[in-house]
Amino acid sequence: MEKRISARAIIFIGDSIVSMYRENDGRKYYTFPGGGVEKGETFEQCVTREAFEEFGLRVKPLKKVYICESEKKIDHFFICKLLSGKVGDGKGEEFQPDRNRGVYKQTTIKISKIPLLPLMPPVVAQAFVKDYNKNGINLRNRAKKLYDGCENPSDLKLVLPTKKYYDQVALFKQKFLDAGSSFDGTNTLRDDDVSTWLKKCEDYRKGKNLPKGFVSATQYICVRKSDDKLVGMLQIRHQLNDFLLNYGGHIGDCIAVDERGKGYGKQILKLGLKKCKNLGIKKVLITCKDTNIASRKCILANGGKFEDKRQIDDPRNKDYGVCIERYWIEIK
Ligand SMILES: CC(C)(COP(=O)(O)OP(=O)(O)OC[C@H]1O[C@@H](n2cnc3c(N)ncnc32)[C@H](O)[C@@H]1OP(=O)(O)O)[C@@H](O)C(=O)NCCC(=O)NCCS
Fold this sequence. Notes:
alpha+beta; binds coenzyme A
């Protein structure tokens, strides 16, 4: 699907910016002035036209400061100089009474109040306040790429699990149980409550209290930096025992049920491989069931070299009879 392209204006009036207050579909929020780029129009022309139609303001776009991409659209944000006009004079189509698309109210919002208000999109609002507090109205020289809805795979990081994520881990687990999803790379999460799980993760990392047949392992949780949401888990086993060499591999991972298909599976593995390097593992074995297409794609995308398939031949294993594909990745 082609993404809708829009241009938007950041217009300062003293210590405030111009904004449209909206009520629509039961939601109340604020937006930056702007709208869809029309055929044959430049971004700058679009911003200029929209500022006049929506707010009755004559503006001059000075520089592009953000490009914000979401699932359906890409918005280009420009710092604009206010030439003339007064907020409230907009006569655009949004103000026609028969339009039936909720409330439009031309307004200004104090920059210091933005963190308290639902100014859309939040990633731009946050970046704007941060840049403004640091650099004043000059903001940045080159447009910064932002992702709304956080589809940016490089927005992920691996961290050790701590109590801070207690509630998120509990919810993550519940969603896996509800979906009947496989708990790869989560240590004992399926069977333990979160407190016990946290304790075991710490113990196993240090090689303490390991059950028979277990090797020491580091459990990571994968967090999206922009909103601190837990989006996945990854476990690195520090050595291979017989079972791991044949079937389990060094790394197990999974992505939250509601965050799949955004490229996170490939990215979590990429981050995991970097951690392997820090742990001194130079040749990493990664495996997947031969029916797990998504996992195979993640392994191949990270340079996995197929070695062979092995069938789980232990009748006590819950996956008895399943075929496991084995891949190696050399870490440079
Ligand atoms: C495997 C898993 C981690 C993939 O996570 P993800 O975030 O959906 O993966 P990505 O978005 O990076 O997608 C990777 C590729 O798989 C494809 N894919 C994703 N889900 C798929 C599915 N259900 N069927 C087929 N292909 C799928 C994607 O289209 C993408 O393909 P591309 O390279 O052609 O673009 C996730 O499905 C998961 O957590 N599964 C349960 C646990 C698990 O199986 N872990 C792996 C154990 S070895």
